[in-house]
Amino acid sequence: MKKSPGIDELAGQVAALDLTTSRHADDAAGRLVLEEAVAALRVGNYGVGAVIFDARGEVVLRAGSRVIRPQFRSDGHAEMMALGSLEADHPALVPSTLTLMVSLEPCPMCLARIKLSGIGRVRYLADDYDGGMVHLAGRLPPIFRLLHPDQDIRRADVDPALRELALALFGCNLRALRRAVLARAKGQTTT
Ligand SMILES: [Zn+2]
Description:
This protein has helices spanning about 5-15, 25-40, 80-90, 110-115, 140-145, 160-170, 175-185, and strands spanning about 50-55, 60-65, 100-105, 120-125, 150-155. By secondary structure, the protein is α/β, with parallel strands linked by helices. Zinc ion (ZN) binds near residues 77, 79, 106, 107 and 109.
């Protein structure tokens, strides 16, 4: 069986992405998001990254998963961290003018937060049919569905290589990280 690539190999693949002939609108932004996923993974968190951009495409802030390090926080998903920083550190920015890009399809918690935040656009690199909520957004309660009807939430326009890297980064160490989270809730530690 083929061994899954480790963090260093995936980081190398992100660094080696050649976007000079890119024909996808979100490739450059997507690479920044993948860099944040690598950074999160390196410190022992899930390999998910997020970046918020202003209307000109300039980076406002970068964030990554913080579920496990420096200490457990159940709301530590990359989108939650990004939106938390946006609201705490950039209160003057107009949410509807901003774009949140994230490496993985937002989960139910994050999609609810995205709705409440009023951020204008959300782009995600990889689908998450097991944990993502965007493809199930029609099942949100009516108020959530009707909130900010102009919000534009969809898959990013990126090269398939970026999509695959986003999934590989999320999958890297995933079982061990999930085991640690489940064990922690019961007061156990894992090695
Ligand atoms: Zn989430």
